[in-house]
TrEMBL record, chain B:
One of its GO terms (biological process) is peptide transport. The keyword Cell membrane applies. This is Oligopeptide transport ATP-binding protein OppD. Keywords: ATP-binding, Cell membrane, Membrane, Nucleotide-binding, Transport. Pfam families: ABC_tran (PF00005), oligo_HPY (PF08352). It is found in: Cell membrane. GO terms for molecular function: ATP binding; ATP hydrolysis activity. GO terms for cellular component: plasma membrane. It is a peripheral membrane protein.
C-alpha cells in the first residue's frame, strides 16, 4: 500500500469538504422539515391534552421559550449556532437538555449497532463468499435459502420470536432493558447482566441485516470468480483456495465496503424497531418514545445524530476505497 | 523432432438446458519439442475449450470425458488426481488466456503477480522471486520503471507482455496461448507475434497457439490444425496448409483473407453460420455450407485420414475408400 502523498492528502481534504457540505444540507433539512409539517408548533410543543385549553398568553410564552416567534432566518441562525455550542434545546416532555438525553442513549446504541454491523458483515459476508466459492453445491443452495429468508423477515417479527422462545419458553435470557433495574451487582456481574440482555437484540439485528450483506458478498465474489484473471491465477498453479482468497475475495471486498457503509443507515432504522421490541434503552427507543409523545426537539436532535453517523460511515468507506482499489486512486488524482 | 505433447481422443462436453453438446469432439493432436502448433477455427469451433481442457481447467457444466489421453513427456496428465494439477500448472504447462487484457488482477502490481507464479511452485524466497520476475519482464520488453505498475496503468500490449512473462517464468515444457493477440491493434499484434517468435528461438519454446486468424498463425507456427465444430478437419505443415488448403473449409478460410497486393477482389466470406452443436448434420459437419459437397457428404461422417506424409484431412473428396 502506497504511503499517502501530497496529492492523496489533497484528495482526502476534498472528500472531507464534500461531506461537510452534505452535513450542512442534512442539518438544514433537519431544521426545515418540522417547520414544513402541518399544524402549528403549539401542537407539538404542548402536551396534546392541554392544547385546547391553553390561553393566548401561555401560547406566546411557549413560542418565546423555543424562539419560535422570531423570523425564520433568525431561527435558522440560532439553530446553527446552537448546534455549534452543543445546544439542541430542551425536551418538551422531560424538561431536560436534548443533548444530555441523546448522550445518555448513544453508548447503548453504539454497542448494539456497532456489534450488529460487525457480526452481520463477518457472518453474512463470510457466508456469502463461501457460497460463491462453492457454487453449484449444497452449501450454496442452503446458504442462499437461509439468508434470503432472513433478508425478507421483518425485524420485529424475528425479535418477538426470539423473545418468546429464549426468554419466555426456555427462560434462558432476561427480557427487558439493558441493565437490571434493581439489586445490581458491580463490575463483572453487571457486565454479565448487560451481555445477557444484549444477546437477543444483537442477534435479531444481525440476522435481519446479514441477509443483504450475504447477497452482496455472494454476487460480488461470483462475478469476480468468472473473470479472466482468476483463470490466469489458476493457470499459474495456485490452488483453488489461494485463487479464491488471494485474488477473488480481495477484489470482491470493494462492493462489500460500500454495502456496509450503506448498511449503517439501515441498521439504525432496524435498531429503532428492535430496541422497542426489547425495551432496550438506545437512541432507537428514544426516537420511538419521542414520536409517541411528540417531543419534537428530541426527535430533531436524534435525527441530527443519525445523519452525522451515516455521513461519517460513508466518509469512512470513501476514504477506504482508494486504499483497496488502485484504480480509484488513479481516478481521484485526475 | 521428438514429440512433447500427444493428445488422443479428447472429448469435452457441456451440459445445457437443451442437452449435452460436445465442444471438443474426439480431438487427436501432437506438439513436437520446440514446435509451435497453430489451432485455427472460427468462433465456437471449440478452440478455447480445447486450450482450457489441456490445462484441466474446464468448469461445470463442462467436463472432460473419460477415455482421452494427454501425454506430456510420456506422462498422462488426465490420469493425475485433480489435487496434483496445481503443481503442474504453470510449471509443466502454462496458459496465456484469451483476452489477456483482463488476465491480470486489477489490484496487484504486475511484478508481484509474476513473482507469485514463482513462489507458488517453489522454494524461492519472495525477494528472489521478485528479482526473477523483473528479469522476465525486461525480457518481454517491459521497462523497469513500469514493473510495479498496476494493470490499468499499462497499455494493452504491455499487459499482454506481462501475461507472457507470467506464462514463461517457470520455463514450462508447453505454453498454450489462446488468442494471444486478439483485441490488440495491428502494430502491437505484430510486435507480440515477433516476441513469441523470438522467445521460441531463445528458449526453444514449445507452444500451442489458438487463433481465428489463419495468416497470423501461418506466420509464427510450424504446423497448423484447423478446427470445425469441435473437430480437427485438417492438419499439416503451416505454409503448405495456407498455400494449398485441401479441406473446403480451410480453402474458404484462406479465401476469406483480404489481399493487400494484386488486383482488387470482393472479399469472400463463408456462406451460412457455424453449426448448432445441439443439432449437428448426420454426415459431414461442414456439408450444409460446403461448395464442393456431393450426395455422400449428407450421410458419411468423414474421419481424419492421412493423405500425404504429415498431412491429414477429414473430407470425402480425398477419401476414396470412404465413399459409398
Amino acid at each position: 500500500m502506497p504511503r499517502p502523498s501530497g496529492a492523496a492528502w489533497r484528495r482526502i481534504g476534498g472528500r472531507v469538504a464534500q461531506y461537510a457540505l452534505v452535513l450542512l444540507v442534512a442539518v438544514s433539512l433537519n431544521f426545515a422539515i418540522p417547520r414544513l409539517a402541518p399544524g402549528t408548533p403549539i401542537d407539538y410543543l404542548v402536551p396534546s391534552e392541554q392544547v385546547a385549553t391553553i390561553t393566548p398568553e401561555q401560547r406566546e410564552r411557549v413560542l418565546a421559550q423555543f424562539g419560535l416567534e422570531k423570523p425564520l432566518l433568525e431561527q435558522y441562525r440560532l439553530y446553527l449556532t446552537g448546534i455549534l455550542r452543543g445546544d439542541l434545546g430542551v425536551s418538551a416532555q422531560q424538561g431536560r437538555p436534548v443533548v444530555d438525553m441523546l448522550l445518555e442513549r448513544l453508548p447503548w446504541t453504539l454497542v448494539l449497532v456497532g456489534g450488529a454491523i460487525t457480526l452481520a458483515t463477518v457472518v453474512g459476508g463470510g457466508a456469502g463468499f463461501l457460497s460463491a466459492a462453492r457454487r453449484g453445491g449444497r452449501t450454496e443452495a442452503w446458504g442462499l435459502a437461509l439468508f434470503m429468508f432472513l433478508d425478507s423477515m421483518p425485524p420485529f417479527w424475528i425479535g418477538m420470536l426470539l423473545l418468546v422462545f429464549f426468554s419466555g419458553y426456555l427462560d434462558l435470557l432476561p427480557v427487558f432493558g439493558a441493565l437490571p433495574t434493581s439489586g445490581a451487582a458491580g463490575g463483572f456481574g453487571l457486565t454479565l447482566e448487560f451481555a445477557q440482555r444484549l444477546v437477543l437484540p444483537l442477534v435479531t439485528l444481525t440476522m435481519v441485516r446479514a441477509g443483504w450483506l450475504f447477497l452482496v458478498a455472494r454476487s460480488s465474489l461470483a462475478g469476480e470468480l468468472s473473470e479472466d484473471y482468476i483463470l490466469m491465477a489458476e493457470a499459474k498453479g495456485l490452488s483453488r483456495r489461494q485463487v479464491v482468497l488471494g485474488h477473488g475475495v480481495r477484489n470482491a471486498l470493494l462492493p462489500l465496503v460500500t454495502a456496509v457503509a450503506v448498511e449503517v443507515g439501515t441498521v439504525v432504522g432496524g435498531a429503532t424497531v428492535v430496541e422497542t421490541v426489547f425495551s432496550y434503552p438506545g437512541l432507537g427507543r428514544l426516537i420511538y418514545e419521542s414520536v409517541l409523545s411528540r417531543d419534537y426537539l428530541v426527535l430533531q436532535g436524534a435525527f441530527l445524530l443519525l445523519a452525522v453517523g451515516v455521513i461519517l460511515a460513508n466518509l469512512l468507506a470513501d476514504l477506504l476505497y482508494p486504499i483497496l482499489d488502485p484504480r480509484v486512486r488513479a481516478e481521484s488524482l485526475r | 523432432m521428438s514429440t512433447l505433447l500427444e493428445v488422443r481422443g479428447l472429448n469435452t462436453v457441456y451440459r445445457t438446458t437443451e442437452g449435452q453438446i460436445r465442444a471438443v469432439d474426439g480431438v487427436d493432436l501432437s506438439v513436437g519439442r520446440g514446435e509451435i502448433l497453430g489451432v485455427v477455427g472460427e468462433s465456437g469451433s471449440g478452440k478455447t475449450t480445447l486450450a482450457t481442457s489441456l490445462m484441466r481447467l474446464i468448469k461445470p457444466p463442462g467436463r472432460i470425458l473419460k477415455g482421452g489421453e494427454m501425454l506430456l513427456d510420456g506422462e498422462d496428465l488426465f490420469r493425475l488426481p485433480r489435487s496434483e494439477m496445481p503443481a503442474r500448472r504453470g510449471r509443466d504447462l502454462a496458459l496465456i488466456p484469451q483476452s489477456a487484457m483482463h488476465a491480470l488482477n486489477p489490484v496487484i502490481p504486475v511484478d508481484k503477480q509474476v513473482a507469485e507464479a514463482i513462489t507458488t511452485h517453489g522454494e524461492a524466497s519472495r525477494k528472489a522471486a521478485l528479482r526473477t520476475a523483473r528479469e522476465r519482464l525486461v525480457e518481454v520488453g517491459i521497462p523497469p520503471e513500469r514493473h510495479s505498475a498496476y494493470p490499468h496503468e499499462l497499455s494493452g500490449g504491455m499487459r499482454q507482455r506481462c501475461v507472457i512473462a507470467m506464462a514463461i517464468v517457470n520455463e514450462p515444457k508447453l505454453v498454450i496461448a489462446d488468442e494471444p493477440v486478439s483485441g490488440l491493434d495491428v502494430v502491437v499484434q505484430a510486435r507480440i507475434l515477433r516476441l513469441i517468435s523470438d522467445l521460441k528461438e531463445s528458449r526453444s519454446l514449445s507452444m500451442m497457439l489458438v487463433s481465428h486468424d489463419l495468416p497470423t498463425v501461418t506466420r509464427v507456427c510450424d504446423r497448423i490444425a484447423v478446427m470445425y465444430a469441435g473437430r480437427i478437419v485438417e492438419t499439416g505443415e503451416a505454409r503448405t496448409v495456407f498455400e494449398k488448403p485441401l479441406h473446403p473449409y480451410t480453402r474458404a478460410l484462406v479465401e476469406a483473407v483480404p489481399r493487400v497486393r494484386g488486383p482488387k477482389q470482393d472479399l469472400q466470406s463463408i456462406p451460412g453460420d457455424p453449426p448448432d452443436l445441439h443439432h449437428l448434420p448426420p454426415g459431414c459437419n461442414f456439408e450444409p455450407r460446403c461448395p464442393a459437397a456431393f450426395a455422400d457428404c449428407k450421410t458419411v461422417d468423414p474421419s481424419l485420414e492421412e493423405v500425404e506424409p504429415g498431412r491429414k484431412v477429414a473430407c470425402l473428396l480425398y477419401h476414396d475408400d470412404e465413399r459409398e
